[in-house]
Amino acid sequence: MWLFLVVSIVAGYLLGNLNGAVCVSRLLHDDVRSHGSGNAGLTNFIRSYGASRSLMVIAIDAGKAVVACLLGGILLKDSLGFRAGAAIGGAAVMLGHVFPAFLGFRGGKGILSGLFIAIVVDWRIALLILGVFALAYFATQYVSLGSVLAAITFAVGFALLHHRDPIVMACGIFMGLLAAAMHWQNILRLVKGQERKTNLFKKDKE
After folding, report:
1. Are 19 and 103 in contact (CB under 8 A)?
2. Do 62 and 68 meet the contact criterion of CB atoms below 8 Å apart?
3. What's the N-to-C CA distance of the chain in angstroms?
4. Exposure winner among 45, 117, 133, 160, fewest CB in 10 A?
5. What's the gap between Cα 34 and its chain centre?
6. How far is CA 74 from the centre of its chain?
7. How far apart are CA 33 and CA 19, in angstroms?
8. CA-based angle 25:65:127, to the nearest 5?
9. CA distance 94 to 22
10. Interior angle at CA 143, CA 149 and CA 68, nearest 5
């Protein structure tokens, strides 16, 4: 068990270092972190390069999250259960996404990866966070507000739906609170009325 646990955590963390926004921006001979907010996330990528190029970013960040969860689930299925193993792999990949050692610990905020982690671990929570994000975003056009509320919903969802499985619950709460905490600057700007609205569906600038 312990070997599989270590492999799940290390592999998940290393996969997290594969940041979609950074990878795609480097294909464009640039670094997304040198633009806008300096964050290596989907929102800053769209603001910097346009929505049409974001599909590859989504594919990379979604793919690494799913692979990490499936790997953890498969390796730890017999000892902890598939869902617990997937949650551990998910927590590791999110930690690697937010604090990537190979990218100077300057990563994304974990919302997109968190969505696909939730899809693997518990699709009900994925639907909840999608709904909360959509309602908040379409009502205000503040991506950050939708993201923070989605992250809190993530943590609360795991606490309520998996209170009988301490590993799954703990991993879920950890991931949700980590994603929410990474938005602390956005929260301050929202409170001050200084946050920037974003149209996620705008066409690229010519």
Report:
1. yes
2. no
3. 54
4. 160
5. 20
6. 21
7. 11
8. 110
9. 16
10. 70
**Cα distance between residue 104 and residue 107, in whole Å:** 8
d(CA 160, CA 193): 32
Distance CA 124, CA 131 (A): 11
Q: What is the pLDDT of residue 202?
A: 63
Q: Rounded to whole angstroms, how far apart are CA atoms 20 and 61?
A: 5
Regions of the chain short of the pLDDT cut 70? 201-206
Q: What is the pLDDT of residue 206?
A: 37
User: Is residue 163 helix, strand or coil?
Assistant: coil
Under 8 Å between Cβ of 35 and 67: no
Residue-level pLDDT at 196: 85
Domain assignments of the chain as residue spans, ordered by start: 2-192
Tokens of 190: 């929202």
Q: Are 60 and 18 in contact (CB under 8 A)?
A: yes
Give 170-176 contacts, CB < 8 A, sequence gap 24+: 171/84, 171/87, 171/88, 171/90, 171/91, 172/87, 172/121, 172/125, 174/91, 175/90, 175/91, 175/94, 175/110, 175/114, 175/117, 176/114, 176/151, 176/152
